[in-house]
């Protein structure tokens, strides 16, 4: 076998040394991340939505821990897919992150041509919080309880309207879970976000809305909205007198709405680890626990491997619900 020439061996040594220097510089950069550079939290829903409220609560506390300013940017549209697409295409450097809801895992089943792969193009960092939706109506609608609403919907099939914060959003899926479990027919009206859906429900132009409790609670307390049931299996401590789906004899209608943190795929593991560790510190803060409790939310920390499995399992569950509800988006 012919041995490489002296010049060739020298060239190889130079290339190897350069590669080591580059790798060392990259590792050092990751170790020093974020170096004071602002971090963006992209929220693919409107300001005031449940996802947005959780994102801003976390951002306020996480920034000082990481040593960087965190800017929350709302990029609503198409059930959260517009903001998600922006993050999927962003550099995998830890400076652009996605705060999405459980609706993120629904979108592959209802949008046939997504510009990203939900599981492959994102790295799950951790869930942030689980929070119940609450079925709200206008007090002027005259419903005394959930049974009244179901009775009216069955008496007038296809004539009542239910709002959502967008196709495929958690508010939409909670409504579909309820509709399938209760056996009613009604018309879905997707809005740009939670605030718009709440406004239309207060006005009575839509009959009901499974609103994030964090967003609807002030208006429930002010008497602008009437809560008929929370969308979860158990009651919420924030609304202890409002029945759950189990209390309402509809256990199959229970739905878990959660908010999670994602990074673009191939984000360096040291950076992902630093973000994960910082978020877990935030979720343990007494004032965050109190704030979440007042909003009916519960911290939902999870390690990255467990979260990845959770995402895969929930994507399958979401696909089953979409098929059962017959949801189709043209």
Helices and strands: which structural class? alpha/beta
Mean pLDDT: 91
Strand tally, please?
11
Report the biggest beta sheet as strand number plus sense, adding barrel if it closes: 6 strands, mixed
Which regions are unreliable across 5 or more consecutive residues at pLDDT < 50?
Answer: 16-29
Distance separating the two termini: 64 Å
Shape: globular
Specify the helix fraction band.
40-55%
Q: What is the number of helical segments per DSSP (H or I, 4+ residues)? A: 11
Residue fraction in strands: 15-25%
- How big is the Rg? 23 Å
| Helix and strand run | HEHEHEHEEHEHEHEHEEHHEH
Strand order of the largest sheet: 2-1-3-10-4-11
Structure notes:
The protein has 330 residues and is α/β, with parallel strands linked by helices. It is built from eleven helices and eleven strands. It has helices at residues 6-32, 50-66, 81-88, 107-110, 146-155, 170-182, 194-202, 213-221, 269-283, 286-294, 304-325; strands spanning 39-43, 70-74, 96-101, 122-130, 133-137, 161-164, 187-190, 208-212, 226-230, 258-264, 298-299. A six-stranded mixed beta sheet has the order 2-1-3-10-4-11, with helices on both faces. Helix 2 packs across helix 9 and helix 6 (170-182) crosses helix 11. It is globular, with a radius of gyration of 23 Å.
């Amino acid at each position: 076998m012919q041995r490489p020439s002296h010049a060739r061996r020298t060239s190889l040594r130079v290339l190897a040394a350069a590669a080591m220097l580059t790798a060392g510089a990259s590792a050092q950069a990751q170790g020093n991340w974020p170096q004071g550079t602002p971090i963006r939290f992209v929220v693919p829903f409107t300001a005031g939505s449940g996802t947005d409220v959780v994102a801003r609560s976390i951002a306020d506390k996480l920034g000082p821990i990481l040593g960087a300013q965190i800017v929350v940017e709302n990029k609503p549209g198409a059930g959260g897919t517009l903001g998600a697409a922006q993050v999927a295409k962003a550099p995998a450097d830890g400076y652009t992150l996605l705060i999405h809801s459980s609706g993120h895992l629904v979108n592959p089943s209802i949008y046939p041509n997504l510009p990203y792969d939900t599981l492959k193009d994102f790295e799950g960092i951790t869930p942030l919080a689980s929070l119940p939706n609450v079925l709200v109506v206008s007090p002027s609608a005259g419903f005394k309880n959930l049974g009244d609403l179901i009775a009216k919907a069955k008496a007038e099939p296809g004539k009542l309207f239910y709002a959502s914060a967008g196709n495929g959003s958690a508010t939409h899926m909670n409504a579909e879970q309820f509709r399938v479990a209760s056996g009613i027919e009604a018309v879905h009206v997707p809005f740009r976000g939670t605030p718009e859906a709440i406004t239309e429900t207060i006005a009575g132009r839509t009959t009901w809305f499974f609103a994030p409790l964090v967003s609807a609670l002030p208006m429930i307390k002010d008497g602008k909205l009437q809560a008929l049931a929370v969308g979860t299996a158990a009651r919420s401590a924030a609304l202890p007198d409002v029945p759950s789906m189990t209390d309402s004899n509809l256990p199959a209608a229970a739905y878990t709405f959660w908010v999670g943190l994602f990074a673009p795929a191939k984000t360096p593991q040291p950076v992902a680890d630093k973000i994960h560790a910082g978020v877990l510190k935030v979720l343990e803060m007494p004032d965050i626990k109190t704030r979440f409790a007042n909003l009916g939310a519960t911290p939902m920390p999870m390690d990255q491997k467990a979260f990845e499995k959770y995402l895969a399992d929930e994507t399958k569950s979401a696909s089953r619900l979409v098929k059962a509800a017959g949801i189709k988006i043209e």
